[in-house]
Structure formats: structure tokens, C-alpha cells
Amino acid sequence: MLKYTRDHEWLRIEGDIATVGITPYAQEQLGDLVFVELPQSGSKLERGTEAAIVESVKAASDVYSPIGGVVTEVNGGVVTEPGLVNSDPMGKGWLFKLRIADVSEIETLMDEAAYRSLIGS
């Protein structure tokens, strides 16, 4: 299941794990990424709190945790090669994985049609 936030994060939900990244729209707005900072594996994130930072030549942007949970894995590949987020934002450019704390929070997120409407495409 794929969900989106108003802050341009995406979540791919598989069982009780959500893989989180930024949308193609978000990476286009930022431009070429030069730095990515990820949360610590094992850290507990609350919905809406800062989870990561992505920085481009244009600007730095916070990435918020779309739902609450515990970070089970981070994508070290995007730290060493931030351009992965630009070239494959919904594939190899994922940022972190969360063990979902409260599945009801997923219901507050947008589906693809609602997200496309938000960004006007």
C-alpha cells in the first residue's frame, strides 16, 4: 500500500513496516541533493516530528515522520550518494523504515489520487 503526506513524503506499507522517502515532486523542487541526514536506527519517532534532513544546492528541507514508530533501518546508500534520492526517489532513494506504532495513523494519509490533486498533476 502506498500513501502520501501533505509534506511530500511517501510511505510504502508492507505488514507492520513503512518505508519512507520523499516524493518525485519534492526532489524536483529541491534540485540536486548534496547531503542527507537520517535518523538513528532504533530511535522512536512521533508523527509529524523531524526525522531527516535533505539538503540541495538550493535549500535544506526537513523530512517529517508521517506516522509514529521505531526506526528499524536507514538507507546508508543515500548518505554516501545523495543523488539516489533524485534519480530514484521511490526506489533506491528511500530514506528510512519504521515499525508502525499505530496503524490508525495511516488512515490520515493521502492515496495517490489525493496527492496528485494536491500537487496539481
Question: Would you give an account of this structure?
Answer:
- There is one protein chain.
- The longest helix is centred in the C-terminal third of the chain and has 8 residues, at 112-119.
- The chain has helices at 24-30, 76-80, 83-87, 112-119; strands at residues 2-4, 9-14, 17-22, 33-37, 44-45, 50-56, 60-64, 69-74, 96-100.
- The chain is globular and about 35 Å long.
- It has one domain: Beta Barrel (OB fold (Dihydrolipoamide Acetyltransferase, E2P)).
- With 121 residues, the protein is of the alpha+beta class.
- A hairpin with a 3-residue loop joins strand 6 and strand 7.
- It is 21% helix and 37% strand.
- A six-stranded antiparallel β-sheet has the order 1-2-3-9-8-5. Strands 4-6-7 form a three-stranded antiparallel β-sheet.
Could you give a short description of this structure?
The protein is of the alpha+beta class and 121 residues long. It is built from 4 helices and 9 strands, in the order βββαβββββααβα.
Topology of helices and strands:
Layout: E1 2-4, E2 9-14, E3 17-22, H1 24-30, E4 33-37, E5 44-45, E6 50-56, E7 60-64, E8 69-74, H2 76-80, H3 83-87, E9 96-100, H4 112-119
Antiparallel strand pairs: 1-2, 2-3, 3-9, 4-6, 5-8, 6-7, 8-9
Poorly predicted segments:
none
What integer value in Å does the Rg equal? 13 Å
Terminal CA distance? 21 Å
Average pLDDT rating: 96
CATH architecture: Beta Barrel
The CATH C-level name is Mainly Beta
Helical content band: 10-25%
The chain-level structural class is alpha+beta
What is the spatial order of strands in the main beta sheet?
A: 1-2-3-9-8-5
Overall number of structural domains:
1
Query: What's the CATH H-level superfamily name?
Result: RNA polymerase II/Efflux pump adaptor protein, barrel-sandwich hybrid domain
Describe the global form.
globular
